[in-house]
């Protein structure tokens, strides 16, 4: 399908600048020649960035991009994330309004001015784009855009792919789904099966079918955004009544010099057509009107934890015709009130005074994205309540005498027991076949209706409890031990990360309400599935403690690469800690130093009202020996774990050796299938982590690399002295060439999977970084894998197709082809990390500045005067360029290092065999004596001795430098006094 897609990219109404055949000798295909029919949001972002970069190389002048789609689909989010990487000009169609009729009205867009602005930029002319003020409902000015301020312009808007603009666009992107589709799901649930999806679209989005959907079929990159705004990035609120002082706004005296923002809103709540007067307000739809704009959120979604009101970022803009469509379908406006707000902000926390006309009172509200920061600001302001956790809607309903029915009724537990043993498996990877349907008319359902969701998502299920004891007779006294017999009934289905996070928090609150303190949670799943991320997000919401099972490693077994062995955990100490927590005793939780491979100390933990929930997360958190002591069991699958499966299956399918998921699991993840997956079946909550951290812009790390010599004293000056810490690491990078890649020519980084060995641990990187300007933009997904996974990659060439094993030719194998050994000095302060790498066989060290804030990384590089010395080459490229011409080959290493690499590969395979043999006899593995030191132990000891030598040299260097500076300062003072 490559030729067809290329024609679609450059000829279907777009700007045809590049029609010459490719002359690149790279073995990898062009990004623009491999665009699938529709992709996820994360994958679409990655494809768009790479496509823009490729098109800039193949054509002169400006690259124009249009991103279109329905309201709430995620267009603006995509444009902003791409702009943060590319550094391009961003033009919103919202500023080209000439009328105020409706947010989606085609006649309200000034296409002539927008087309002229784009044409000027394409012709190399500066242009003035309009600025529209939605409060004043008119155009208030203009903004200048330089023609060559950047080589890319992105146009974002509902009609960005309209026929009047398509001829001016190089790349056309369509985004569907998101909260747009979630609204349809919500409405369909509320009104039942009485109408079809097409009728809903005609009712709620009447302009979508007529003016938007036809344009989206002309897109080259088509994205289905299944993300639903949730509690992944919640907003924390503290609310209390405000006593208005005679001097005016009390918040203004707190943030001196900050300009106060004033706004007026009209907020309406729509009740579903089939709901009664006492329907749960969580099922209502909230509409907020600000000027001529309408914002919608799906119900009164929030979590109340102690004094905090925690809300998701779930509000998106809709048109007035969407509101009219909801009313036409039978929704009723049951509550409407005006809210006047005056707010100031210090960057982290905003303080607002909000007046509700229906209540006749003013309230002070503190908002922020960090729970601890909001609480600290309230303490600094000496505000101690009394706090209000009710919403304005609830308070208004109480004044009207409407009972508060915000808790859903208990559901029957008949279905939960039958489905308790329902299997949970890692999501099957998407495999695009060569005969992919290219014609839209051949699809059974238009892709613009989010075909990835075959049925409407139901409302969130509710938790209920089951008792292992017989029910008590009416009027009998409740035995305190009855609370211990209450257990959560497992959810029969699995959920995505967004819904799973909300259900997990609600489960904790349900256990607290029914059983009291403490609540002990276990989160289990394979490596890289997202356990730690989920645990931290839960802790941010609930305000609890998170303990990793990695803290319970036994020091004597860690250096034997037994990270994925259950016997490597100190179960006796873990059992004691859980028992102490259960019985409200103060306990000491271990602290494990992964760099040294030893237990470095303990920290005290005590159950209290402020710390009544403890989360244990780890690969074996749901093992029977652990989970029986826990209150809530959560299983997480997917994530980078599933991404690696997809990558392996894709690489094998390229050469006609597609392997089933079961074969991949038994080859690459033997520990998972045998010792982890069986425990996940019993979880109360099963979560499918469809989030793709490998391709997602949310996990981007910006890196600047230079070989300029910089004194470490200069490095220390750009870091926060109160938070600075340093370390020394030795690492070995092994590059595995993908199956089907010919062993001729220079080896490219995109042809490899990289495995890093550092301090006895294996980390995997499975995506080539994005290179933009001086920056290397790489994902933060160096996730730990077991030695058996590494050995599984090496052994994928031989797999069992039937009863006998068949050897696959070498071209079909993952083959270790490159070997890099280096040591690194690392300095960091929590925001910026500076790494000085000394690479073997490279004379000069390389300095890397890393951080999630692009501007902060750039500022650090400028302070160190690195401008003009940056490189985006990988260490693999650098070493290959330094090789003698006769030794340059696909191996990418010196000839004398090939034997070293082969030895290391053999040791990995043999070590994995030892681990698997011990896992085969689990009872013997826990009591087996220490085995003799293997050659791999010698490698680790050699690396550790190198680190000690480097640390000694670092100490000596520091002492000498301090002595020199003291002498210099003393001499300067002496000279000044003498003069």
TrEMBL record:
Q: Which CDD domains match?
A: UMPK_like
Q: Where is this region: Disordered?
A: 919-938
Question: Which terms does the record give in the GO molecular function aspect?
Answer: ATP binding; kinase activity
Give the transmembrane region(s).
953-974
Q: Where is the composition biased (Low complexity)?
A: 921-935
* SMART domains tied to this protein: AAA (SM00382)
Q: Which UniProt keywords apply?
A: Membrane, Transmembrane, Transmembrane helix
Report any Pfam family annotated for this entry.
Answer: PRK
- Every AAA+ ATPase domain range: 61-211, 517-663
| Highest taxon of source | Eukaryota
PANTHER family in the record: URIDINE KINASE (PTHR10285)
Q: What is this protein called?
A: AAA+ ATPase domain-containing protein
Organism the protein comes from? Rhododendron simsii (Sims's rhododendron)
């Amino acid at each position: 399908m490559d030729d067809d897609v290329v024609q679609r990219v450059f000829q279907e109404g777009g700007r045809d600048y590049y029609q010459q055949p490719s002359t690149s000798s790279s073995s990898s295909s062009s990004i623009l020649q491999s665009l699938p029919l529709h992709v996820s949001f994360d994958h679409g972002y990655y494809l768009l960035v790479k496509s823009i970069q490729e098109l800039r190389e193949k054509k002169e002048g400006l690259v124009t991009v249009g991103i279109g789609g329905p309201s709430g689909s995620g267009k603006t989010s995509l444009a902003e994330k791409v702009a943060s990487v590319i550094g391009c000009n961003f033009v919103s169609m919202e500023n080209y309004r000439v009328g105020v009729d409706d947010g989606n009205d085609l006649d309200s867009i000034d296409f002539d001015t927008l087309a002229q602005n784009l044409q000027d930029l394409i012709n190399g002319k500066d242009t003035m784009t309009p600025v529209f003020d939605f409060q004043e409902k008119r155009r208030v000015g203009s903004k200048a855009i330089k023609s060559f301020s950047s080589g890319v312009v992105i146009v974002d808007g509902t009609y960005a792919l309209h026929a009047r603009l398509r001829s001016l666009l190089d790349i056309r992107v369509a985004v569907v789904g998101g909260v747009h589709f979630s609204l349809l799901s919500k409405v369909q649930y509320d009104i039942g099966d009485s109408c079809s999806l097409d009728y809903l679209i005609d009712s709620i989005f009447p302009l979508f079918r007529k003016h938007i959907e036809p344009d989206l079929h002309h897109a080259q990159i088509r994205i289905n955004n299944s993300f639903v705004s949730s509690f992944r990035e919640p907003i924390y609120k503290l609310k209390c009544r405000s006593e208005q002082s005679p001097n005016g706004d009390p918040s203004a005296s707190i943030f001196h010099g900050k300009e106060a923002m004033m706004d007026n809103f009209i907020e309406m709540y729509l009740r579903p057509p089939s709901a009664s007067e006492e329907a749960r307000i969580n099922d209502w739809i909230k509409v907020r009107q600000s000027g001529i704009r309408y914002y919608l959120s799906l119900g009164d979604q929030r979590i109340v934890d102690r004094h905090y009101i925690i809300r998701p970022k779930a509000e998106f803009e809709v048109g007035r015709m969407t509101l009219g469509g909801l009313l036409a379908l039978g929704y009723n406006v049951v509550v409407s009130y005006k809210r006047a707000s005056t707010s100031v902000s210090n960057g982290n926390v905003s303080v607002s005074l909000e007046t509700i006309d229906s209540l006749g009172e003013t309230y002070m509200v503190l908002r922020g994205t960090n729970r601890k920061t909001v609480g600290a600001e309230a303490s600094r302001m000496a505000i101690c309540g009394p706090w209000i956790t009710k919403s304005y809607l609830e308070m208004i309903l109480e004044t009207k005498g409407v009972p508060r029915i915000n808790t859903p009724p208990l559901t029957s537990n008949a279905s939960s027991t039958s489905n308790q043993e329902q299997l949970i498996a890692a999501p099957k990877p998407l495999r695009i076949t060569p005969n992919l349907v290219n014609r839209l008319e051949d699809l059974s359902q238009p892709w613009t209706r989010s075909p990835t969701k075959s049925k409407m998502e139901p409302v969130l299920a509710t938790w209920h409890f089951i008792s292992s004891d017989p029910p008590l007779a009416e009027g009998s006294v409740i035995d305190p031990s009855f609370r211990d017999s209450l257990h959560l009934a497992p959810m029969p289905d699995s959920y995505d990360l967004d819904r799973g996070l909300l259900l997990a928090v609600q489960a904790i609150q349900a256990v607290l309400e029914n059983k009291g303190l403490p609540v002990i949670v276990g989160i289990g799943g394979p490596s890289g599935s997202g356990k730690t991320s989920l645990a931290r997000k839960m802790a941010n919401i609930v305000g609890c403690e998170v303990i990793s099972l990695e803290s319970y490693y036994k020091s004597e077994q860690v250096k034997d690469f037994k990270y994925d062995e259950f016997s490597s955990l100190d179960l006796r100490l873990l059992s004691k800690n859980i028992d102490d927590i259960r019985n409200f005793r103060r306990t000491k939780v271990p602290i494990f130093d992964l760099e040294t491979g030893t237990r470095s100390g303990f920290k005290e933990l005590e159950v209290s009202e402020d710390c009544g929930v403890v989360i244990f997360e780890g690969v074996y958190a749901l093992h029977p020996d652990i989970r029986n002591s826990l209150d809530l069991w959560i299983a997480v699958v997917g994530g980078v774990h599933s991404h690696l499966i997809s990558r392996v299956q894709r690489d094998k399918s390229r050469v006609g050796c597609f392997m089933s998921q079961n074969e991949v699991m038994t080859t690459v993840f033997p520990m998972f299938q045998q010792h982890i997956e069986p425990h996940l079946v019993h979880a109360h909550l099963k979560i499918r982590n469809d989030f793709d951290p490998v391709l997602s812009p949310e996990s981007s790390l910006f890196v600047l690399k230079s070989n300029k010599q910089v004194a470490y004293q200069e490095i220390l000056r750009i870091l926060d002295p109160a938070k600075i810490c340093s370390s020394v690491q030795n690492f070995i990078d092994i590059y595995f060439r993908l199956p089907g890649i010919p062993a001729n020519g220079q080896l490219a980084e995109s042809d490899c999977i990289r495995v890093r060995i550092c301090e006895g641990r294996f980390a995997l990187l499975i995506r080539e970084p994005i290179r933009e300007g001086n920056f290397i933009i790489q994902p933060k997904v160096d996730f730990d894998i077991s030695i058996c996974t590494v050995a599984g990659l090496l052994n994928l060439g031989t797999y069992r197709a039937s009863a006998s094993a068949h050897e696959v030719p070498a071209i079909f194998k993952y083959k270790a082809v490159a070997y890099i050994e280096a040591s690194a000095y690392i300095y960091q302060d929590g925001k910026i990390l500076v790494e000085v790498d000394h690479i073997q066989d490279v004379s000069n060290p390389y300095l890397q500045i890393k951080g999630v804030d692009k501007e902060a990384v750039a500022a650090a590089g400028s302070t160190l005067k690195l401008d003009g010395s940056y490189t985006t080459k990988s260490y693999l490229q650098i070493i290959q360029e330094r090789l003698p011409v006769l030794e340059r080959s696909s191996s990418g290493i010196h000839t004398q290092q090939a034997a070293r690499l082969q030895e290391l590969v053999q040791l990995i395979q043999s070590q994995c065999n030892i681990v698997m043999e011990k896992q085969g006899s689990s009872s013997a593995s826990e009591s087996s004596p220490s085995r003799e030191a293997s050659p791999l132990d010698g490698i680790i000891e050699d690396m550790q001795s190198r680190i000690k030598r480097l640390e000694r040299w670092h100490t000596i260097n520091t002492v000498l430098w301090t002595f020199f500076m003291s002498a210099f300062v003393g001499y300067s003072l002496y000279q000044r006094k003498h003069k």
